[in-house]
Amino acid sequence: MILAADDIARLVEHMRRSGVAEIEIADGDDALRLALPETGDAVPAPVAPTVVTATACGVFLPGHPAREPKAPIGSPVEAGEVVAVLALGPLLQPVVAPHAGMLARLLCPAGQRVDFGTPLFELVPHPQSPEFVKRKDV
Amino acid sequence: MIEILDTPPLNSVQDLGRLGFRCHGMGRSGAMDRVALQAANALLGNDETAAGIEFQLFPAVLRFHAGTVFALTGADCAARLDGHPLPPWWAMEAKAGQELVLSPPQHGLRSYLAVQGGIDVPPVFGSRSTQMRDGFGGLAGRALCAGDRLAAMPAPPCATRDRAGYGALPASFALAAPVHETAGEGEIVLRVIAAAEYEQFDEASRASLWNMPWKVTSQSNRQGYRLAGSALQRTELLEMRSHGIVPGVIQVPPSGQPIIQLADGNSAGGYPKIGVVIEADLWRIAQAAPGNILRFVACTLEEARAAEREIATYLAKLRRLAGYCRLPIMEKAA
What we know:
Radius of gyration of chain A: 20 Å
Oligomer: heterodimer
Number of strands of chain A: 10
């Protein structure tokens, strides 16, 4: 097992980001054990974002055509809030946040025609939200 | 049943207005933004002539005493149903006991609330619209006030396919905006047909009508909008007898500052008419606030008819597609 210092640094970074406290890698006679010091961690473990998908077909319009900002990335949203619309002619169908959180990433360009199940947004739960606590416990 | 918990004055029950009684001195009344009210009724599958509530002053608070599906269109009043935010031009279910709060719009002036079946007030001369000047129609011929209760006409019970509801692309996005060569950002362009006395105005005044900005003054309401701009002059002053006028007519009183007659406007008047804003653009005036700039662009009868067809197509398509977003609730067999 040949691991450069860079590789080890990258492993440590992965451990930090995914909340892993200790890993052990063994390859034949070589073994490597990495353990992160317990810090009483002020940084919460990251939580996997929810992918919000289209539940209808239409033209994907983040936010609402009559409201600003057009792509509410970084905005806090409530559970059940309409975060985008899918336009089918003059009809607008909702894209809804399944839980409270923050819209983290746009997965589909605005103005694109989408179909049932097309991934549209990544939604990250708020660190304070019950949803977040629930997921962290799992 | 809707209860008005709080409202400023001047909010009233309106439908598409009272037609056929102008010869008796009775104007049309009805919604100022007819497209918004029609879109709200189209979202719900209501009759085109169903009555809704026109809000022109805010904030307003209402409570639903029975479950219904409602639609809110017109100016975006950042509505909240029991605190839950609604997008503009939106339809969704309200449960009995829920409260709807409408806040002052940042853009536009008038918002419309429709409920399933429409607001049930007695029709007067074929319309449920409130004629506030003469005090009939709507709810006891007056504006709404706190404590008022409005019933809805019977309608087959239905639910929305998505709990979050569904909406309409607002008219300002769905309909092509008229183009004016020198209009600035945010100015409201209206299509105008020259009226009977157009040729009596001097050349400079006729040019001003098309080329100059016209500011909406604070003396603007459901009766008419008084505009401020360069004075319009006739080559010679001729007396005129009062004659029938319609909403959209641009009259020029001796001051030279034009007035656009609107929903609650007079049925007759004696001021010379320089032009008439086409019916298809009257909703744009309804959403113009004091301080906004209006621009007039000349339009032919054919273009006016095409603009009306564009609105009719938009509403018909919306009505058809919105039908897929509602599900009938079957009564359980006894």
